[in-house]
Amino acid sequence: MRRLLELQQKLLPDLTRVLRERYMLLRSIYHLQPIGRRGLAQAMNTTERILRSEVELLKETGLLTVTAAGMQLSGEGQQVLDDMEPLVGELFGLRDLAEGLQKKLGIPEVIVVQGDADQSPWVKAELGRVGARVLKQAIQEGDIVAVTGGTSIASVANHLTPSASFKHVQFVPARGGLGERVELQANTLAAAMAAKTGATYRLLHVPDRLHPEALQTLLKEPQVQDVLALLQNTRIVLHGIGDAIAMARRRNYSEEELADLAEAGAVSEAFGYYFNEAGETVHRMPTIGLQLEEVHKAETVLSIAGGESKAKAILSFAKQSCQNVLITDEGAARALLSTRL
Amino acid sequence: MRRLLELQQKLLPDLTRVLRERYMLLRSIYHLQPIGRRGLAQAMNTTERILRSEVELLKETGLLTVTAAGMQLSGEGQQVLDDMEPLVGELFGLRDLAEGLQKKLGIPEVIVVQGDADQSPWVKAELGRVGARVLKQAIQEGDIVAVTGGTSIASVANHLTPSASFKHVQFVPARGGLGERVELQANTLAAAMAAKTGATYRLLHVPDRLHPEALQTLLKEPQVQDVLALLQNTRIVLHGIGDAIAMARRRNYSEEELADLAEAGAVSEAFGYYFNEAGETVHRMPTIGLQLEEVHKAETVLSIAGGESKAKAILSFAKQSCQNVLITDEGAARALLSTRL
DNA sequence: ATATACAGGGACAAAAAACGTCCCGATCAA
DNA sequence: TTGATCGGGACGTTTTTTGTCCCTGTATAT
């Protein structure tokens, strides 16, 4: 494929530019639909007229339909967008980035999506879309999937679709309450994923900020024990990676606690663990759930994190060397590759 | 590849049109170089200005160089033209034509080049170029290659290049003098091919229009016997297919003989044999050389014929069902496919 | 050597396409 | 019902493409 592209580019030098632009257009429409000309023009920061020409062309090709509510992708347009996925790597040079990361971080598989989650809101959605696709491919009957909270994982939940392969799958929250907003909590997302796919789910109801003694009591509860037993047999871990300080702040840590974390050198966060640059655990959220050893035992660990601001955190967590697949974005990838080892 | 092209076409509807045009441009330059803007514009019947824009673009891409003598392909341009070969089948729908012919005529491999040899002079050159390529692929050490005369085969000779694989190959004329112009005779072409490739060759010197008795005498000549013995071990036959009447006329048949041929239903001609629509031999040139049985015995029979006017002849000869590869052009292919079985 | 024919490149007006901008009636959501 | 937003029409302006002609240099044949 690469060869064909190079050949075509010699005969039609701005082929890739056009393909890139059209791809971004389709993708934007997909994420914003139904959307009007003006709104879209603003979102893609281009002019209304120029966008109009593009849209008219895509309309003639039948890739998008135009209603009074705005424009949206047709079935074929959706199909084309999906079919383009492998092409995108070449068009934006993402394949090279992915290979570079793979080598640098020692992760078996790396997928890089175009854009920067810090700058463009839809990039998070893209991460979710790709994450959902990868999860669907990895899933096997009877799997136990441990999921964490966070915006990236929430995005995956959003893009999951019903499928027979999820029939006997169980989604289990990786950890109990972590003090996040409810729509981003692991419990919520496990349930949401189950609902979207047709799988089943379990919950881990652990109130926030419990005293250690109360925690011990809870641990004896049959329901809780049940879930913990399931977590020990986790085959797939689906988790996000957070910036340590940002996560702590989101979880309403006091200024004092934040200072402690910073002093300890915490850089990244995942399933309630905080890691320093060397990948060592420097702090744990006071709750119960998936243990780090169990993550290492899992067959497939799917990490999702994007945005330039996440680069340091990704690098830190990669030290765990337990990941099988990393899904990230261009912004993070470039930042990672430009830092010295 | 096909899939990628379809995808691209949805995003850039006139991609294939542009690729087609640029390909034809490169090809025309290749066949006419060095050529000036005006001459080329006339040859491709387009305007000077529009061609100029195209040329400027290709020049910037480095595909052609511009000298005071005119423009010509650069090394890279040459390379691109070669690399495009597989693409051309898709762009011009030639793959479908080839498959159709393969089915209809029962020939294992069919290659169709773009254009019509009756209309555009360079199509014959293209047939030769492709023929040379195929021959080069088919050749093995120690092969004996029987070649016929004719313009198509002459074109193959023109496009052959030196190669180590031709080291111990012998080119042998399929038949003795057949009354054609010397530059199209089998003898000449066998020698030419040997010279171009670095192979060796043998000649079959048989004067035109010999009496049967004289022929018998000649047959006893050691030199002749030698060549005939070689022909019995022919592994590759490289031959053209002619329209029966046209060939006879080119060979200065009398009006009376022509009438006889026509009455006998002669349609096609190859290595001195004339066949009717059913593929039956209705006449033979009075000379010596490769026998029809030997053609059937050969491992590879490479037939080359193009132009709409050759369609009937190709169909007739295909009845022999001894061909392995047919190289023809769009004009002939379309005509063949549009005739009832 | 010289004439000639043909090469590429420059120039420029005409034509066409692309673009910026504004408006309008329809439609949907509040 | 109201207000915001939708797609499509309209139109002048800008940019690009195209047609046309000319000029100078260079091969080639005489």
From TrEMBL, chains A, B:
The keyword Magnesium does not apply. It comes from the Bacteria. One of its GO terms (molecular function) is DNA binding. Residues 91-338 form the Sugar-binding domain. Residues 18-87 form the CggR N-terminal DNA binding domain. The keyword Transferase does not apply. InterPro entries: CggR_N (IPR048715), NagB/RpiA_transferase-like (IPR037171), SorC_transcr_regulators (IPR051054), Sugar-bd_dom_put (IPR007324), WH-like_DNA-bd_sf (IPR036388), WH_DNA-bd_sf (IPR036390). Transmembrane segments: none annotated. Keywords: DNA-binding, Transcription, Transcription regulation. Belongs to the SorC transcriptional regulatory family. This is Central glycolytic genes regulator. It comes from Brevibacillus parabrevis. The gene is cggR.
